[in-house]
Amino acid sequence: xxxxxxxxxxxxxxxxxxxxxxxxxxxxxxxxxxxxxxxxxxxxxxxxxxxxxxxxxxxxxxxxxxxxxxxxxxxxxxxxxxxxxxxxxxxxxxxxxxxxxxxxxxxxxxxxxxxxxxxxxxxxxxxxxxxxxxxxxxxxxxxxxxxxxxxxxxxxxxxxxxxxxxxxxxxxxxxxxxxxxxxxxxxxxxxxxxxxxxxxxxxxxxxxxxxxxxxxxxxx
Length: 220
What we know:
The protein is of the alpha/beta class.
């Protein structure tokens, strides 16, 4: 989808991808990453996720990037957080204590922007990218995060012929294609969550597998 289409979704409040509470997989599996207080976690295409505030409350620094001004301003408003705003030729940055939300294009990020990153939490970014652009998305991810940065990755997989997306189907074989050179890929959990998304069953889906992966950076 073109960035303007994502902006339009936020303008029209078509944000079914936004979760009403902290993601249970994040709560369950974050301890596996052995982070220290003050470590930086990067959230690509972060929206206004409740996960941002929760991670900050655990003592971590959170850096998110999001194309929609509405999403970012809604996050700060809904959590009653005041922020400082600055602008560059690439981004608008809004910062409140240990939360930094960048308004702009993910593909404009550079390694200097994430030099302190200790973990990537990708809940709804990879599955928001169509198949034609996922190679580019993953290659860019590897170019902007420090080497061996671990990831918690959540994906969906279904018969793409039954539903157009987004969110798009990302089978495990694709994750291997994108990341196996840099990571040991460990699937932590997989569940058929179609009963939780009845409107997608109405669109014709018969199976909707949600998978959680720990991507351990290979220490070269």
